[in-house]
Write a structure and sequence with these properties.
8-stranded antiparallel beta barrel, 8 strands, about 15% helix, mainly beta
Length: about 280
């Protein structure tokens, strides 16, 4: 019995001695670690090189229809005292409107990196699923033309509609890395493709004073214009962040604002929040 006890004690002491002289690194090698090796480096993560990916977003389009039918009203009242004296073509005939829709797209870019500063450019193409809106309204005014003293009752009935089909962007990006995060700002330009339609009906009822040689009149004129696939430029700005999840894969979240130039007398701008996934090389 004494022999067995001494043998067990010697084995225990030998095991403790082996643990004591074993390097800590050898034990740690068998333990799982966090964060993943993709996030471990002696310096900032490299973001330079080519990057591309896919994105999905929700867009809000603000549309100002206010003077979309001005040119049509001016043409309907051309060579009249009413237009010359009171310019009904300058009346705000339609309200503003907003609408929401989904978009899908892809991007391709290139980055240069100096320490933690990242400068780059990218291009993107986005297709809208249902970003369209319309407005209609009627406005009436009583006006008196001074030369002939005829009382004119002018009524303008207007309708406008617009749809953003798709758009492409070219952007310059500037960012600063924090670990696996790359927050950035963008400036650039956009080109959008729109369908629009405007229609206006102008009615002018003239009542001359008693004894006037001018006869009473009631004129109605309807004018319209429309175009499909109208190409319109715009300016953009935005903020975003890329997050590295693997050595060459990143996630993206960003906000982008685009103000398009007037098309068919209609002004539009869109705010977009989107997410995306990309790869870099």
């Amino acid at each position: 019995m004494t022999c067995i006890s001494r043998t067990n004690s010697a084995a225990a002491l030998a095991a403790l001695a082996l643990i004591a002289i074993t390097p800590v690194g050898a034990l740690a090698a068998d333990m799982p670690s966090w964060p993943s090796p993709a996030f471990k480096s002696s310096g900032p993560i490299r973001w330079d090189g080519i990057n591309f990916g896919a994105q999905f977003g929700l867009s809000n389009m603000n549309t100002d229809f206010g003077n979309s039918t001005s040119s049509l009203v001016a043409f309907a009242l051309r060579n009249t005292e009413v237009q010359d004296q009171f310019a009904p073509s300058n009346w705000t005939t339609l309200p503003s409107n907003t609408t929401n829709g989904r978009q899908f797209g892809a991007f391709l870019g290139y980055n240069w990196q100096w320490d933690q500063l990242v400068i780059g450019f990218d291009g993107a193409y986005n297709v809208l699923s249902s970003l369209q809106t319309s407005a209609s309204d009627t406005i009436s005014r009583q006006v008196v033309t001074t030369p002939d003293n005829v009382n004119n009752a002018v009524t303008i009935t207007a309708q406008s509609s617009i749809r953003l089909i798709d758009y492409a962007t070219a952007r310059v990006r500037a960012g600063y890395t924090f670990g696996q995060f790359l927050p950035y700002a963008v400036l650039g330009g956009a080109v959008g493709r729109f369908n629009y339609a405007n229609t206006v009906t102008v009615r002018d009822i003239g009542t001359p004073p008693a004894g006037s040689p001018i006869l009473p009149f009631d004129t109605i004129d309807t004018e319209s214009n429309s175009k499909n696939n109208a190409i319109v430029g715009g300016a953009l700005a935005g903020l975003g962040v890329d997050v590295s999840i693997f050595a060459n894969v990143f996630l993206r979240a960003e906000w982008e604002y685009i103000a398009f130039a007037q098309v068919g007398g209609i002004r539009t701008n869109i705010n977009t929040g989107r997410v995306g996934i990309g790869a870099r090389f």
